[in-house]
Amino acid sequence: MANIVAIVGRPNVGKSTLFNRLIEERKAIEDNLSGVTRDRHYGHAQWGGKFFSVIDTGGYVTGSDDLYEKEIRKQVRLAIDEASVILFVVDCIDGLTDLDTEFAKELRSTEKPVFMVANKADNLDKMLMANEFYALGLGEDTIFPISSSSGSGIGDLLDELIKKFPDEGEEDPDEGVPKIAILGRPNVGKSSFLNALIGKERSIVTDEAGTTRDAVHTRYQLYGKDYILTDTAGIRKKAKVKEDIEFYAVMRSLRTLEDSDVVIVMVDATRGLESQDVNLISLAIKNNKGIMIMVNKWDLIEKDHKTMLTFKEDMSQKLGENKWIPIIFISALTRQRIYQAMELAMKVYDNKHRKVPTSKLNEFILPEIEKYPPPANKGKYIKIKYITQLPTKNPVFAFFCNLPQYIKSPYTRFLENRLRENFDFEGVPIKITYKKK
Ligand code: GDP
Ligand code: GDP
């Protein structure tokens, strides 16, 4: 189960400052990631050996003041639905405000843990102000005074926060079974695909706006191999206003996405790759998931021998550097290639767990580096000495060299491409880091 922490609160209390502090330590690692655009409101954090995701919900709320009340309701409700823990941030300089009370009202209905975080407790005086917020009658037994700008108090908060996350390593009957999620815009054909694949009317199709249910994990077999499909088809279908869509898409997809190994992004052939699809893909990349694109309703496209290629090239263009994402064309209606699609998902799963022996890496990649060494920087020559794949859950390759700080991102892309040519990482984000040696 994914650990998701949502930061909620009225504007200007310091949510994004706190958010940036929480994800701070990871930044350096993520900067080495090739070909990924970073989302300012969503990131990963780690404390006491536990990993969690953080969402700055405020980052998504835009608009004039009178919009806030409505926004608050929506924001808080989504946060409650999707998060495992909620950080409710208030401001010791301003003290208790009406808007805080509004937030508290909305939060009171949840059974999920709520932490009252009194920010801007920069000194003892301000810290005493934190007591004022007990009036809200919310949260765990205590209020956490913190200063996001200096960092004080955040350690104590995190110590308590991580106690809410389950311990790793408890026996999980699904351990080692590939978890595959099917995500995509409403009406792309997710339920139809599942029904075609599973052969019975298993996902309840609800067209009603506002119907919610949790994603369902179900275990299946294909050619004797177990896998788990996460079915999001029944999840609330329509965002009420246009501006909701990005926030909605992110929140709704997050948990499903985090709980899966491979994400199938389903796209409607008659519409092509849309910006929401691209958002989903970048979210999946950020989460180090295996990814594939499944173009459905292929039966509706008039085809000649070049159509598929043209489609692929067009999508490739939109994917930019992420050309390693495989694309398959299916029809849930005629059942064309539906089993091949699942086989592809399993292959992506295998690729994601591929461990390349150090000897092989050096045998294949060092000669490529010799042919095209990193360009000298400020008159200094960069020498890469050897390469090894780290024992991480997702493929990460460490390149040991004399001057890691001088290697620029075009060269990282060059290395990534050579790795992909020599070893099969189709559908899998890979990371490259440089270490001094
Ligand atoms: P958000 O709208 O809730 O995301 O708030 P921001 O993170 O943008 O912060 C709003 C303002 O409060 C900014 O000017 C921050 O510099 C300031 N701020 C944030 N944390 C602290 C803090 O711990 N102490 C003080 N004094 N100011 C802070
Ligand atoms: P969901 O919202 O993603 O679960 O989409 P549905 O499975 O409910 O499908 C939406 C609509 O698209 C329904 O009318 C389906 O009959 C239709 N549909 C789904 N797959 C296909 C397909 O492969 N070809 C055609 N022509 N229509 C499809």
From TrEMBL:
Domain EngA-type G: 3-169, 178-353
InterPro entries linked: AAA+_ATPase (IPR003593), G_ENGA (IPR031166), GTP-bd (IPR006073), GTPase_Der (IPR016484), KH_dom-like (IPR032859), KH_dom-like_a/b (IPR015946), P-loop_NTPase (IPR027417), Small_GTP-bd (IPR005225)
Binding site for GTP 2: 184-191, 231-235, 296-299
GO MF entries: GTP binding; ribosome binding
One BP term from GO: ribosome biogenesis
PROSITE patterns tied to this protein: G_ENGA (PS51712)
One Pfam family named in its UniProt record: MMR_HSR1
Record has Aminoacyl-tRNA synthetase as a keyword: no
Swiss-Prot/TrEMBL keywords: GTP-binding, Nucleotide-binding, Repeat, Ribosome biogenesis
Binding site for GTP 1: 9-16, 56-60, 119-122
HAMAP family recorded: GTPase_Der
Summary of subunit composition and partner proteins: Associates with the 50S ribosomal subunit.
PANTHER family listed in its UniProt record: GTPASE DER
Function: GTPase that plays an essential role in the late steps of ribosome biogenesis.
Family under the similarity heading: Belongs to the TRAFAC class TrmE-Era-EngA-EngB-Septin-like GTPase superfamily. EngA (Der) GTPase family.
Protein's name according to its UniProt entry: GTPase Der
Taxonomy of the source species: Bacteria, Pseudomonadati, Bacteroidota, Cytophagia, Cytophagales
